[in-house]
Amino acid sequence: MADTVNSLAVRVHELLVALLSGGSAAEGTAGFHDVVARATALGPDGTWLVAAGHASLGGLACAQGQTDQAVHHLDAAVAAGYNDCVALHVAPIRPLHHDPRFRSLYQRMRITQADLDEFFWLHQEMQLMSQDAQNAAVDNIGRLDTGVSLLPQAPMPTREPNTLGILITRIDLAATQTALRQAAWKLDIQRSSGNTSLGLIDDSWDDPRATRDAWHADELDSRRLRAAEARAFVERPGAGSVLIPCPPLGSITYPG
Question: Strands, E, within 48-161: which ranges?
């Protein structure tokens, strides 16, 4: 089956979910190299996916202390249209800020104010959903009911971006949402199954408490859903759509 932009975007999502779920960095590296090669074969339509692959390879190399490889891949990502200047201020990347080669590639990036607004929102939402997942895990401790809660997520922005780099970070957010929801689901299924078994064999099982826990969990689920829906991205009126240099390196505080 021939590759398409959509099929390779799905592949990038799958690779990111695997890494976020504790997958092998070596397998991720091989997978993103494959994405770059296959996206290159698509021509101009696949250029932003080439950027996505190189950006992920740059992040993996940086995490492993491979500075030269990290700069090489980030440089290739920028050449292919990567412009998420917010992501380049995360803690693992900041040691590169003093590297002249990194400073040079950063200065080549261009962005619009409207896209910058969305980049900030996308990264903030990754942090907020991670906090939601942590809070839900704490709230579920000691629950005696057998219900299973699905971690809610904010809707993905649907605006037409000014630059294709936005599409890359939208995949990053979607992968974060998927990985967190899968992890939360797995833990909740284990708790639910355990409670089901204990309820069958333990004559002293506290059914009224289990019922109260179920009601409380439903209330918390509703609150989280409303909060996630309320976090939907809203485009700022008058946000510029003209390409400009990214904010100066070091001037961005990463959300969270």
Answer: 110-111
Candidates 57, 94, 95; CA nearest to 75 is 57
Read off φ and ψ for residue 111, nearest 5 degrees.
-150, 165
Using N-to-C axis directions, what is the helix angle for 165-201 and 207-230, rounded to 10°?
Answer: 170
Token output for 177? 């949402």
pLDDT at 206 over 90: no
Angle at which helix 207-230 crosses helix 113-139, to 10 degrees, equals 170
Instruction: State the residue for tokens 């800020």.
Output: 97
Query: How does 54-79 read in b/e, with b if 16+ C-beta sit within 10 Å?
Result: bbbbbbbbbeeeeeebbbbbbbbbbe
Q: 80-116: string of b/e by CB count within 10 Å (b at 16+)?
A: bbbbbbbbbbeeebeebeeeeebeebbeebbbbebbb
> Tens digit of pLDDT for each residue in 47-75?
999 999 999 999 999 999 999 999 999 99
The CA-based dihedral angle spanning residues 147, 19, 15, 18, taken in that order and rounded to the nearest 10 degrees: -30
153, HSE (Cβ side, Cα atoms, 13 Å): 18
d(CA 24, CA 3): 24
For 110, list phi and psi in degrees, rounded to 5.
Answer: -130, 150
Paired strand residues for 111: 244
Model pTM score: 0.92
